[in-house]
Amino acid sequence: DEGKGKLTDILAPGAQLCARAAGGHNAGHSIVANGVSYSFHLLPSGLINPKCMNFIGSGVVFYVNTDSASSPSFFRELQDLEEKGLPNVRERILVSDRCHIVLDLHVLVDGLEESELGKRQIGSTRRGIGPTYSCKHARSGIRLSEIFNAELFEFKLRALERGYRKRYGELLEYDVQEELDRFKSYRTELKKYAVDQVSFMRSAQKDNLNIIVEGANVGFAFLCCRYFVFDTNKLVGWANRSRGRRIPLFRCPNRSGSSFIGLCLSFDGPVPRKEKGYETLWARLRNPPEVQALMLDIDMGSFPFVTSSSTSIAGIIGGLSLNPRSISESIGVVKAYTTRVGAGAFKTEDTAEIGAKLQDIGREWGTSTGRKRRCGWLDLVVLKYSCSINYYDSLNLTKLDVLDTFDTIKVAIAYLSEGAELDSYPADLDILDRAEVVYKEFPGWQESTTNCKTYSELPQKARDYIEYIENFVGIKVKWIGTGPDREAMIMRA
């Protein structure tokens, strides 16, 4: 909801390859195109663009069970998209054979693990994501490539079942033979989609394809491989190269630009906005309440209230075998205030009048779920911490217009523990809970900034606010969002 999708949309209209880098079917969002709403959970949403190839990388955990009525899965999502009229979806999706498989066993264990925590529950979606990543890092998980070896698959699945059975006993209501039988039917069909990630992504980058990186847990990013210039209607990529065939799968418009990756700071997904024009190949996101960002990173987030994958630049590079030298600019996207969904540390949260006002003006609730977001002042301690991890070259400050009517605006500039300032965002949640927040106050500008297009149009007090943020973190605010529409964006030279 901090607007990373909007910036990506503005900067990257010509996607040729949409790739998922991390996460699983636990998160979801909707895209509205031509009056039809499409739901995406596991599949990349580039499938909505008939000229875009799509890829699920090795950082993703992959769920295929078509019998589950409560959870989206690979084949179920493909079928839903076909029924809504999207063309050739099965010909425009490939999956890394290194993806780890989410089993029904993992789904059941996820619920049992969450129940064990009692009042200290993390807030799991209970879709098996955490247990699958746990098995992956314990080196006991099952990868897509191993499904095609029936004997090995059965051996590993039964070993997992025995281990969980020792822990949970009769609480684990699971039939291992049922799962084995299901995968017999999946095995042949899945082979059509499995490719070697390294050769596939090497080929895509060698051909300088315009790549959108999408992750339910990494927000959105855009990468084009170094500099690119495309000739109108020239075939520029052969996405099936790794499968031994050279079939032209897409064309691209005349386009040029430089490479960058865009990431985000806050805790939610892109802000809802209307579809604008056919010429943009990348459809706008409308209702993504579960898209997550840096502070939910498994290593660097507010552990344990995090997701199970890496949501930083490192996760994007590793989850897709991207060449880090292709990244020439990193853009951090942060709201002019802070929001969070669900449990977890939020030092600047305001549960009274200010928080309610931010929530109301900023429309801080999931448009599909109605779930309210927790709101508070911008936390520059967290922003600076984020900058130290992702090394942003510039920032995009969004939803500045939400602050237009406030008499006073605050930002957090330090945490004090026992009277001493902490050097950084602490890993120890007990220290964080006890820490005192130091704020700096600004007079509100109390003028409308909505739809301002140039920096000089902003009130001086709004510019003072922006420039203080720049000086505090040492990074230029290059983009400023002044409303939900695509055009409501200031770009500073």
TrEMBL record:
Gene3D superfamilies referenced in this protein's UniProt entry, alphabetically: Adenylosuccinate Synthetase, subunit A, domain 1, Adenylosuccinate Synthetase, subunit A, domain 2, Adenylosuccinate Synthetase, subunit A, domain 3
Superkingdom, taxonomy of origin: Eukaryota
Keyword Protease recorded: no
Matches recorded under CDD domains: AdSS
Single biological process term from Gene Ontology: 'de novo' AMP biosynthetic process
Cofactor(s) in the UniProt record: Mg(2+)
InterPro entries: Adenylosuccin_syn_Lys_AS (IPR033128), Adenylosuccinate_synth_dom1 (IPR042109), Adenylosuccinate_synth_dom2 (IPR042110), Adenylosuccinate_synth_dom3 (IPR042111), Adenylosuccinate_synthetase (IPR001114), P-loop_NTPase (IPR027417)
One Gene Ontology MF term: GTP binding
Keywords assigned by UniProt, alphabetized: Cytoplasm, GTP-binding, Ligase, Magnesium, Metal-binding, Nucleotide-binding, Purine biosynthesis
Residue numbers annotated as active site: K136
Gene Ontology cellular component annotations, sorted alphabetically: cytoplasm
Assembly mode: Homodimer.
The protein's role, per its UniProt record: Plays an important role in the de novo pathway and in the salvage pathway of purine nucleotide biosynthesis. Catalyzes the first committed step in the biosynthesis of AMP from IMP.
Entry protein name: Adenylosuccinate synthetase
Source organism (scientific name): Stachybotrys chlorohalonatus (strain IBT 40285)
